[in-house]
Amino acid sequence: MSSPAWLETETARRYHNFAQQTTMYQELSHLMVQLAEIEPGMQVLDLGCGTGVTTQAVLETLGESGQVFAVDVSEPMLAVARGQINSAQVTFIQADAATIPHLAAQSVDRIVCNSVFWQFRHKPEVMAEIRRVLRPEGRFVFNAPEPYFIFEAIPRSKKVSVLFEQLAAERYGVGRQDLRSIAVFLQNCGFEIIGKQMLERTRSAAESYLFMQIPVATAWMEPPLEYETRLVLLEEAQQLAEGNQATKQRWMYFVARSISL
Ligand SMILES: C[S@@+](CC[C@H](N)C(=O)[O-])C[C@H]1O[C@@H](n2cnc3c(N)ncnc32)[C@H](O)[C@@H]1O
């Protein structure tokens, strides 16, 4: 799983609002589809499809042949997606990324996973499912943003505390990944990286404000604060902040294919 906040109706409503008022998910989807090298007629799995922004981008690339299996664990997110996309080429499936019995072994040519992968808490199980459903010559494309991803290859440390975290990242995909540990993790799961690309974009203050209104965006706090309390704090921050403060966002994209174990 990932954050239970994804299952909330309010998350789906606010996420959809964000996705309609900003171009962020469209920009991210555009590069993902490009890197996936999707061809007409292909069978494509959109893993963690959300409200369907990436699904739509895949559909446009597929033309009039081919199929998209749009999978998400959250029924409220899928409900929005179904309302947005009405195509016989898209099958929406409510399932966890680690268990998609609706898909046969080696049944898809491409798997795209936009803005989700680092959130999975059970990455080895998800990777096993990806390996099961992907055709041998298929591609798996995913991305991760800073600070969840470190844009460096950090060598194995000699310090026990650091090495502990590195082993957790290599074996279980837990915590922050860097360019080396993600390659080791994927290899342990039977995949090799065949392509990488960085995407840099500017996030305006208005986009940050809108994004932080999505319940899941601030649900990580420990100990947790009630959503209403978070919204009150956000309003205060919005009033106090300087309106023109933009931030740089960097995303790393990976293209992987399966290898024999
Ligand atoms: C940030 S959204 C991305 C949605 C979509 N890919 C897009 O670009 O707009 C993450 C999505 O992943 C879904 N998700 C999270 N954990 C999941 C899991 N374990 N299995 C399937 N979907 C999951 C969430 O419900 C949410 O819709």
- In helices, the fraction of residues equals 25-40%
The first-level CATH class name? Alpha Beta
Shape: globular
Point out poorly predicted stretches: none
Main sheet: strand order: 3-2-1-4-5-9-8
> What share of residues are in beta strands?
15-25%
- Would you identify the CATH architecture? 3-Layer(aba) Sandwich
Broad structural category: alpha/beta
Name the CATH homologous superfamily. Answer: Vaccinia Virus protein VP39
Q: Summarize model confidence as the mean pLDDT.
A: 96
Can you count the helices?
9
**SSE order in H/E notation?**
HHEHEHEEHEEHEHEHHE
- Strand tally is 9
Largest sheet: 7 strands, mixed
Instruction: Find the CATH topology.
Output: Rossmann fold
Which value, in Å, is the CA radius of gyration?
Answer: 18 Å
Tell me the domain tally: 1
Present as ligands are: S-adenosylmethionine
Model description:
The chain is α/β, with parallel strands linked by helices and 261 residues long. It has a single domain, classed as Rossmann fold, CATH 3.40.50. The chain is built from nine helices and nine strands. The strands form two sheets. The chain has a seven-stranded mixed β-sheet, sandwiched between helices. A two-stranded parallel ribbon has the order 6-7. Strand 4, helix 5 (123-133) and strand 5 (134-145) form a beta-alpha-beta unit. The longest helix has 14 residues, at 227-240. Bound molecules: S-adenosylmethionine. S-adenosylmethionine (SAM) binds at residues 1-2, 6, 19, 25, 29, 48-51, 53-54, 71-74, 77, 96-97, 114-116, 119-120.
